[in-house]
Amino acid sequence: MPKKIKVRETEEGTTLYSIDPIIMLWHYEVNYVHSYAQDSPFFTALSKGKLLGSACTHCPATFATPRGHCMNCGKKTQWREIPAEGVIHTFTTCYFGGEAFLEETPYTLILVAFKGFDTLLLSRLIGIEEEQARIGMAVRAQFLRNSKFLATDVYFVPSV
Ligand SMILES: [Zn+2]
Description:
Elements: E1 16-19, E2 22-24, H1 40-47, E3 51-56, E4 62-63, E5 77-82, E6 85-94, E7 107-113, E8 121-125, E9 138-143, E10 154-158
Antiparallel strand pairs: 1-2, 3-4, 3-5, 6-7, 6-9, 7-8, 9-10
The protein binds zinc ion.
């Protein structure tokens, strides 16, 4: 008779929220020293309740999602403040999300268009039911009072 070989098992269980599909509690933690480097002014501005995009120093291109170099001509850009109000270019409601959004899932992601900027900014729409979101709806940026220096420090609410 072959010797019975088994891996050592532990006694703790697994927290399952759903079996089909399997949704389970999964602890994950790591400390990580991160630099925003040349993107730092964007996050500093968020902590002061401002949005920064960028504008090309050579051609008329402007970027609501800031870029260090122009997507059109490749030259350097400079920081430019974005107005706090814009309009929803498009949106989607997410029924599954990452850890940062668990408490507000389902949540609505929006791409916001701003006067004077050629590209869009991705953010969250807060304060209305997802079926009330509309393309062209005027929205206003709001900022966390206690900045985390993360892109999620800014979110949008309907302007009216
Ligand atoms: Zn350019």
